[in-house]
Amino acid sequence: MKMPVALNVVLLVVGSSLFYTYVGQLVPQKQLLPPAEVAIAADLTTDQMVKVGFEVVQQKGLCLTCHTIGKSGTLRYPDLAGVGDRAKTRKAGMDDIHYLAESLYHPDAFVVPGFKGGMPTINKPPIGLTDKEILCVIAWLQSLGGTPSVTMQTTLPDQAQG
Amino acid sequence: MNPRLLIAAAIVVLLGLGGAVRVYFALENQAYHPPVRSLGVESGFPREQALKDIAKDREAKAKAKKYEAPTYRTLPFVSSRVAVWVVAQLHLMFAAFVLAVPMFAFIIELIGYFNGDKRYDRLAYEFTKLLSTSFSFTASFGGFLTFLLIMLYPAFTNYLMEIFSWTFFPYVALFFAEAGFLYSYYYGWGKFHPVVHLLLGLGVNVVGTLIMFIADSWASFMMTPGGVSDAGALIDPWAALDNFTWMPINIHRFIGNIAFGGSVAAAYAAWKFLGAKTDEERAHYDWMGYMGNFVAISAFLPLPFAGYYLAREIYGYNQALGIMMMGGAFSWLFIIQAVLIGNLFLAANYYLWLGMGRIEGTQSYQRYVKYLLAAIAVCFAVWATPRSILASVSEIKAMGGTLHPALGVLGVMSAKNTAVNILILTTYVSFLFYRRTGKRPTVAWAALGNAVQFLIFFGVSGFVIALGVYGYFVDAATRIGLSIPQVLSVLIGMVTMTVIDAFMLRGAEQTGETHWGKLPAISQYVLIFIAVTFTWLMGLMGYVRSGLRQHWHVYGVMRDQSVDAFTPTLGFATQVISVIVIIFFAFIAFVFWLSSLHDKPDWGSAGQGPRGSHGPGGGRH
Amino acid sequence: MTLFELPVLLGIVVAMALLRLVRASLLVWVLAWWIGIYVFVSRGFATPVPASAQHIYLGIVTLALFAYVTSSGERIRSFVDPLVNFAGDGRYTLALVPVLLALPALAAYREYVNAKVPVEPPFFARTVHPSPPTEITVHDQKIDMLGGDNPLRHLEKDDPAKFAEHVARGKDIYYEQCFFCHADALGGDGMYAHGLNPAPANFIDQGVLPSFQETFFFWRIAKGGPGMPDEGAPGDSAMPEWERFLSNEQMWEVVLFLYDHTGYRPRAREVHAEGH
User: Chain C closest CA to A12's CA: distance in Å?
Assistant: First the structure.
């Protein structure tokens, strides 16, 4: 009588653990790699910057964990579709490049009406994009509903010296 | 022990050793051996000279080597992450157990002191017996974890020392105090005035909780650092301790520990029940398991809300972190969590229904079981419905997206909050039925009381569901706020129903006797299943709390540059968790066995009955 | 939109009610509930429930039914006894054989169905009508997408005869070039349409012509599939870049024809172009 009980208990403990492991195998299996450090060449054309910018947005920038592109309805975070056009007129006396730069370097300086602030500062850790990467992201943002005009030579007030 | 079995085991071990030696020599034979040569032939082969040169070169290099402080070291076979993960989780589980058991041992002793029922005192002592070994295991695992951290992550450990070294002396002092209180509480059982002993118990709990608070600050600092500059330099030691998630984690762990400790203690009782030989033993361990499970489930009910508080603080610290948890890579983890919690609710209710079998005259409530079960299954299904369902391409096309038109509404917070509240309410009703089984109220207003309870139950359910539905029509901020009235209405409902019940059953007629120990053995396996599920759930939530940092040692301050910086798949994580759970239960089995030694007859005095006065079925002290 | 397949639901309810009349045993009830819920989740919804969600629900149902059956001695007995009788009683031997054969066959069939899943390309959540750039250049002419208008539209009031002429030419171009895919009746189901994925635009659909301004369709015609932004999956659409074949005026004429033929009006321009 004693032996079967011990065996049953062992089977129960191992069996339930195995069951939960099995449940764990059924969900999507995704391994997250830390963002690779990619050097960005200084002589990219604006078109190339758009492509690089989109990569940064998808990967290192983690932008799409919150932001959507072309989604309507009740949103928790501002949708980015058409932002390249809106950025031109969002803030009086500020052109699109500087508005977009401000919203990356100082996210809470202007919060889109209807949303709560709280976006992390993009050039600081944990996101920590470099100035070059931010230029590329701006190029990509401009391409959403606008024509990119930023270049690798554009200087922004918040860029680190040197 | 059977001598024949011993001899057989010795032979098996010898054979195994022999086999291992043979394998070793066989492998050795495969290694490179220089060809055997006649001694007469002069040795002047370039190979030998080259080998000598290489050796010399190596020696010269070794002598000239400069010391560099390593950032990481590695272990053979096991990755650093998994090693630290397993040991930290085991340390945490034993610590949780050691903190939780005195908590309810103290409460049970207190109840026993006030109502004078000796059974409570004995139960509290029985729980305490599990403590001393667990305490040393906790400390051993803690030491092991510290060594592993210093060894595998020296730079990071050094950084934590930089921030937290000022907490170490109080921590050590508290540890000594804990040892003092714990052992005097255990060995001093029945030796002091009850009040003095109760004060010792209180001391164990207060000191233990403080120890946990200090350790929590280290762990929570890694996730939501505070009090440091952008570059990581310490500015404000207290802000580093009292960081964003420190208090939420303290509260969450405090409650979680009680639930976990209760479930493991119930598993202990179940184990003893299954091995019991007399009806009296069975009755005692049935009661102990019931009490342990009662503690576990009562502590479990408020746990989701402590979890919401923690999650809210994580969002407050950094929205990206919150989104990563609930919407990003970790969102599927919460579907696994839903399966675990659904199982817990189902098993807890199931145990109560089986428990009705202890009491004569249960037919009147048995027929409600199916409706309770249906409610639980529906809530379980709602909770386990993912926001975006896994689907093949053709299925996605049929749905027109990853959102199912009918099931999509079940995937959001409104539905899940409602489901959890209804689950809690249902579990409470199961408990109410269990409590009332075998009793018939004699007060004049019994019918009215029943009707009012009924009204409260349906009123609260209706209110919770209505709020859940309303949540779909308001914006996110209002929706999150709705969870508070939902919880409050459930709490108020439970309290008023309990009060009515208490008055209504005052002087109730006993229609059936409660026979502790008279219930099917499967109920005891359910208790063990609950303990495994709790442990596994703890491992899973420990993983998400720690894994959320992704490639950071200290989120946003110190990056993980090691090869283990990636976040593994959920499948891999669940495998590691299962290994941890199985190791934990192996250790716990050892603890159970040790505490049962206490009741074993002395060697050489077989058949004389248990030694001492605390054995199950033995005398009461 | 109905969410459920009402006949299926009714069928389940009727079957359950019938079972109630014949006073079935617990075993039958458990099987009936399991099968009933299985039918409900697999066939009961207007939009089929994905297999992964079906698994979750049926797993929960199985657990719950197991808990119910084992929750008291009586229930265990009334569940197990019929099974034991069936397996042990000599009278049922003949019936037992097909059941014993059917169980592994059922498992094998399930495996077969699971293995037979066709190979499918990875899913991309394509935006059907992506938002256009602010400005495009077609045949060296800059066209303002937000403020611009169909240069021929004003003729509708100013010179109806000329307007009708343009519409007629647009009609000719449509039936020379477009109707192979977009169909005679503009329904997007032309003779080549079945070979295309994404399907050609259906101009009868209320969600297409009235939802956008004319510049939007000019952009889509001129720049075609390759001119889509990324979220529109530029590689997938088979729409040619018509600026290579048609003049600007011809494309505007086609746009005129589309609106004129369907009777829809372009979406009124917003005073202040704003996102969400």
Answer: 15
Using a CB–CB cutoff of 8 Å, tell me whether C70 touches chain A: no
* CATH for C224: 1.10.760
The residue of chain C nearest to residue A50, with distances taken between CA atoms, is: C230
Q: Are residues B492 and B563 in the same domain?
A: no
Region of residue B78 (left: phi > 0; alpha: psi -120 to 50; beta: else): beta
Tokens standing for residue B509? 């007629």
For residues C3 and C22, give the distance between their C-alpha atoms in angstroms, rounded to a whole number.
32
Strands (E), B377-518: 439-440, 509-510
Residue B41's CB is within 10 A of a number of other CB atoms, namely 8
Rounded to a whole number, what is the distance in Å from the CA of A142 to chain C's nearest CA? 10
Average pLDDT over residues B287-307: 89
Touching partners of C (3+ C-beta pairs < 8 Å): A, B
Question: Which of B336, B365, B389, B403 has the most C C-beta neighbours within 10 Å, making it the best mutation to test the interface with C?
Answer: B389
Q: Are residues A67 and A138 in the same domain?
A: yes
- What confidence tier does B318 reach under pLDDT thresholds 50, 70, 90? confident
Please tell me the distance from the alpha carbon of residue C175 to that of residue C59, in angstroms, as a whole number: 56
- Which residues, in sequence order, are CB contacts of B79 under 8 Å at separation 6+? B563, B564
Asked whether residue B612 carries a pLDDT value surpassing 50, the answer given is no
What's the length of chain C? Answer: 276
Enclosing domain of residue C175: 135-262
Of C47, C48, C60, Cβ closest to residue B381: C60
Task: Please tell me if residue C4 touches chain B, with a CB cutoff of 8 Å.
Answer: yes
Residue C92 sits in the same domain as residue C206: no
C38 and C154 share a domain?
Answer: no
Distance of CA B604 to the CA centre of its chain: 40
Among C4, C57, C72, the residue with its CB nearest the CB of B357 is C72
Whole-angstrom CA distances from C62 to B274, B309, C39, C169, C216 are: 27, 33, 14, 66, 53
d(CA B21, CA B100): 47
Q: Is C2 on the interface with B (CB under 8 A)?
A: no
Mean pLDDT, range A68-91, rounded to an integer: 81
Domain of residue A56: give its range. Answer: 46-143
Which chain B residues contact residue C118 at CB under 8 A? 394
Whether residue A162 is predicted with pLDDT greater than 50 in this model: the reply is: no
Domains contained in chain B, number: 2
What ipTM goes with this model? 0.84
Chain B: give the shortest CA distance to residue C65, in Å. Answer: 9
Backbone angles phi, psi at A24, to 5 degrees: -65, -25
How many domains, chain C?
A: 2
C104, C139: one domain: no
Task: Kindly state whether residues A61 and A86 are assigned to the same domain.
Answer: yes
Render pLDDT for B469-494 as a digit per residue (tens, 0 to 9): 888 887 766 777 788 888 889 989 99
Residue A38 lies inside a defined structural domain of this protein:
no
Do residue A79 and residue C276 have CB atoms under 8 angstroms apart? yes
Domain that holds residue B456: 360-513
Q: Which residue has the higher pLDDT, B81 or A62?
A: B81
Per the domain annotation, does C27 fall within a domain? yes
Cβ of B574 and A25 within 8 Å? yes
> Do A17 and B581 make contact, defined as CB atoms within 8 angstroms?
yes
CB spacing of C125 vs B402 below 8 angstroms: yes
Per the CB < 8 Å rule, is B476 touching A34?
A: no
**Cα-Cα end-to-end distance for chain C:** 26
Q: Give per-residue pLDDT as tens, B399-426.
A: 776 778 888 888 888 888 899 899 999 9
Nearest CB among A21, A116, A125 relative to B578 is that of A21
Contact: C53, B520; criterion CB under 8 Å: no
Same domain, A21 and A64: no
Residues C140 and C247 in one domain: yes
The per-residue pLDDT for range A1-41, each reduced to its tens digit, is: 445 888 999 999 999 999 999 999 988 888 888 888 888 88
Question: Which residue stretches of chain C have pLDDT < 70?
Answer: 1, 123, 125, 269-276
Which pLDDT value is given to residue B621? Answer: 40
A137 assigned to some structural domain: yes
Q: Out of C48, C57, C60, whose CB is closest to B398? A: C48
Distance from CA of C173 to the nearest CA of A (A): 30
Residue C152 maps to a domain: yes
